[in-house]
Design goal:
Oligomer: single chain
CATH topology of the largest domain: UDP N-Acetylglucosamine Acyltransferase, domain 1
Number of strands: 27
Largest sheet: 11 strands, mixed
Distance between the termini: 70 Å
CATH class of the largest domain: Mainly Beta
Number of domains: 2
Shape: elongated
CATH superfamily of the largest domain: Hexapeptide repeat proteins
C-alpha cells in the first residue's frame, strides 16, 4: 500500500512531480518545476522552488529552502537546478540554492546532513556523507568531496575545494583548498594534522595512516616548498603504492588556490 500525504494547507503546484509515499506538511510551498523522490518528507513552511530535484527518503525540515534563486547579480532567472541525492537531511532554515548559467546545477550527493541555518550557494558540488554543522556556509562554486565534516559558523570562500575525509573545525574561515584526510582549525586556518580519529572510525588501516603521515610530513614539516615535496613523494615508490597518498598528491598538484598552510612555528 503506497500513499502520498499532502496537508490541505500546503501550496502544491499541479505540475510538480511527486514520488510515492511523499509527505508534505502545512504551509509548505512546492513550485512547478520540482521533482520529489519516493518516501521524502517535507515539513511545514518549507519552500521547494523551481529547479529542485530531491532524491528518495530525504528529510526537509521546517522552514528549509531548496533551489531558491542564486545570490548572484549575474543571474538572469535562467532555468537551473539544485539536485539532492537520496537520504539527505536538511534541517531548519537551511538554504540550498540552484545553479547559475556557468554550470547550470548545484549538485549534492547521498546521505548528507545539513544542520540548521547552513547554506550551500550556487554551482556548488557536494559529495556524499557530508556533514555541515549549524551556520556553516559554502560560497559559490565550492567543491566538497565525500565524507567531509564542516564545523559550525564556518565560512568557505568561493571556488575552494575540500578533499575527502577532511574535517574543518568550527569558526575556521577557509580561503584555500583543504587537502584530503586533513584536520583544519585555528584562526587563520592552518593544517593541524590528519583527521586520524575520523579515519580510524571509517576503517582506514594503521599502514595507510602511517603512509599519509609520512606524505604530509614532507608537505608541511620538511621545509620543502609544495612542488619539491610532491617530487619527493612521487620518488618514493612505497608511498606511491598507497592509493590514499596518490589521492593527496593529485589533489595538491591540481590546486589553483593553494592549500591551507602549516601553523607557524613559535620561537
Amino acid at each position: 500500500m503506497t500513499s502520498t500525504r499532502i496537508d490541505p494547507r500546503a501550496v502544491l503546484h499541479p505540475g510538480a512531480k511527486l514520488g510515492v509515499n511523499v509527505s508534505i506538511g502545512p504551509h509548505a510551498i512546492v513550485e512547478e518545476d520540482v521533482v520529489v523522490g519516493d518516501g521524502t518528507v517535507i515539513a511545514g513552511n518549507a519552500y521547494i522552488a523551481n529547479g529542485a530535484r530531491i532524491g528518495k527518503e530525504c528529510r526537509i525540515h521546517h522552514g528549509a529552502v531548496i533551489a531558491n534563486a542564486p545570490q548572484d547579480l549575474k543571474y538572469a532567472n535562467e532555468p537551473t537546478t539544485c539536485e539532492l541525492g537520496d537520504r539527505t537531511t536538511v534541517r531548519e532554515y537551511a538554504t540550498l540554492h540552484r545553479g547559475t548559467h556557468e554550470t547550470g546545477r548545484t549538485v549534492i550527493g547521498d546521505d548528507c546532513f545539513f544542520m540548521a541555518y547552513s547554506h550551500i550557494a550556487h554551482d556548488c558540488r557536494v559529495g556524499s556523507r557530508v556533514i555541515m554543522a549549524n551556520c556553516a556556509a559554502l560560497a559559490g562554486h565550492v567543491h566538497v568531496e565525500d565524507f567531509v565534516i564542516i564545523g559550525g559558523l564556518t565560512p568557505i570562500h568561493q571556488f575552494v575545494r575540500l578533499g575527502r575525509h577532511a574535517m574543518v573545525g568550527g569558526g575556521t574561515a577557509i580561503g584555500k583548498d583543504v587537502p584530503p584526510f586533513s584536520l583544519i582549525g585555528n584562526r587563520p586556518a592552518v593544517w593541524e594534522g590528519l583527521n586520524s580519529i575520523g579515519l580510524r572510525r571509517r576503517g582506514f588501516s594503521p599502514e595507510v595512516l602511517d603512509a599519509l603521515d609520512r606524505a604530509y610530513l614532507l608537505v608541511y614539516r620538511s621545509g620543502l616548498n609544495t612542488t619539491q615535496a610532491l617530487e619527493r613523494i612521487r620518488a618514493d615508490q612505497q608511498l606511491m603504492s598507497v592509493v590514499e597518498v596518490r589521492i593527496v598528491v593529485d589533489f595538491i598538484a591540481s590546486s589553483k588556490r593553494g592549500i591551507v598552510p602549516a601553523p607557524r612555528m613559535r620561537h
